[in-house]
Structures
1.
Amino acid sequence: MFPKSIIENLSEKEKYNWLKEIEKLNRLDDLSFEKIENIVKYGRQNDFWQAQFLSLLKLRKKNKDGIKFWLIFQEQMKNSKKLQSKKQVLHDSDY
């Protein structure tokens, strides 16, 4: 999900902090590990976010409006799926 260059350059402390962050997302934010993985994949594959989302620590941080980034990613994922579904319906109705 993250470029190999980022992973290879993490110190042991940074790796530990990433694992701690995953644990907090699961325990405190009540996210399944599968959901965390999907959110991370979305953030890393999104054209805008991939340049901004270079660390798992970003997920629990809040934006200027006080919203955690994992919530932002999750909502954008839902909206992009809805948009894709609408596009598919429109495409199918062309035939």
Note: The longest helix spans residues 69-93.
2.
Amino acid sequence: MRAVADTNVYISALNFGGTADEVLTLGRAQAIQLFISPSILQEVEGVLLSKFRWSAARTRQAIAGIREFAQRIHSLLLRLDASLNPKATGTPPCTRSPLGRTHI
């Protein structure tokens, strides 16, 4: 299985454990293939430093650990409708990964 975990999954796993940590454990064990974008990595780093007041060294170590098992990708925004208004069209905007998968 392939998955993209958002910032909240990484933050929850690193600070609280639980289900979010189970997702990362599956990624580390290669039971699932986790992907991460540079923007998610930057956001995780910023949240750990500012909101949770992690030290720079601890944060660097966490980011390095994520990079060991999560494959970096660059998402491309795909326009489904000119308005991009889910209420008007019933279709939400989504992203398409380089793997050709569409993520809503």
Note: The chain has two domains: 1-73, 74-104.
